[in-house]
Amino acid sequence: MQSSIYSDHITLITQSRLPAQSYMAGVLAELNHPFVWCSVDELLSAPIQSHRCLLLDYQDGSTIRRGLSPQSIPTTSCDIVIYNAPQRIRTEALLSLGRLRGIFYTDDTHSVIRQGLQRILCGQIVIPKTICHQLLNYYQEQYPAPINTGTALSPRESQVLRELLSGHSNLKIADRFCISEVTVKSHLHNIYRKLEVKNRLQAIAWAKRHLSTC
Fold first, then answer.
1. What pLDDT score does 70 carry?
2. How far apart are CA 78 and CA 175, in angstroms?
3. How far is CA 157 from CA 140, 141, 152, 180, 184, in A?
4. Prediction pTM value
5. What is the spatial distance between Cα 88 and Cα 103, in angstroms, rounded to a whole number?
6. For position 33, what pLDDT does the model report?
7. Are 142 and 135 in contact (CB under 8 A)?
8. Is the pLDDT confidence value at 4 over 70?
9. Which residue intervals define the domain HTH luxR-type in the entry (predicted)?
10. Which of 4, 86, 147, 170 gives 158 a disulfide partner, CB atoms 3.0 to 4.6 angstroms apart?
11. Antiparallel, parallel or unpaired: β 79-85 and 35-39
12. Three-state SS across the chain?
């Protein structure tokens, strides 16, 4: 199938089941929009950027991504929609899905999915509020607003200082921000130097005085 066809269709990625065995067959049949079935091998035969919308079964997501390796799902071209999703999804899994524009849960009805797909095709985003909050919290933690301390603390150093004030250990801070303990120690060294304090306790005391109302 030529890539130009994909640009006007919803592309349903299949893994092991025959297309007719997927409950999405009934949903897409009710949707007044052209769609095509596509295996991972067929997907690799044409640039992913040529697709308008990729529809993935979340339960097959990790297998499909391995099949796509080393070609990654693009983040700025085609829309990604997942269905058959659980109520709880790890943030890392959400971020790996590229230009995510829709999420449908395992218990969503055909009508809910069909109407959601219609909205996505019109340029809207159909993602549950809980997932939006989850992603917003992630980005707020990763890219916090600088703390107005009167010092030259970087955004990450400001984060680490907040974590110190909360009583978290170096290991906890490292896990929270997905960095190594060595990197945490480097941030602490810079914080002590910039705040002109000698140790962790003094940094915490400084934070209590200056950040308690921030």
1. 46
2. 32
3. 14, 12, 9, 14, 9
4. 0.62
5. 12
6. 81
7. no
8. no
9. 146-211
10. 147
11. unpaired
12. CCHHHHCCCEEEEECCCCHHHCCHHHHHHHCCCCEEEEEHHHHHCCCHHHCCEEEEEHHHHHHHHHHHCCCCCCCCCCEEEEEEECCCCCHHHHHCCCCEEEEEECCCCHHHHHHHHHHHHCCCCECCHHHHHHHHHHHHHHCCCCCCCCCCCCHHHHHHHHHHHCCCCHHHHHHHHCCCHHHHHHHHHHHHHHHCCCCHHHHHHHHHHHHCCC
Higher pLDDT, 175 or 164: 164
Token readout for 15 is 């893994």
31-59 confidence digits (pLDDT tens) = 878 887 777 777 666 666 567 788 888 88
The Cα 49–Cα 73 span in angstroms is: 9
pLDDT at 116 over 90: yes
pLDDT of residue 213: 46
Rounded to whole angstroms, the Cα distance separating 52 from 2 reads 13
- The pLDDT score that the predictor gives to residue 68 is 57
How far, in Å, are 48, 115, 129, 148 from residue 151 at the CA level?
46, 51, 37, 8
> Which tokens go with 206?
């400084």
Identity (one letter) of the amino acid at 160?
V
* Residues 119-159: tens digit of each pLDDT: 998 889 999 999 998 888 888 777 766 555 566 888 888 88
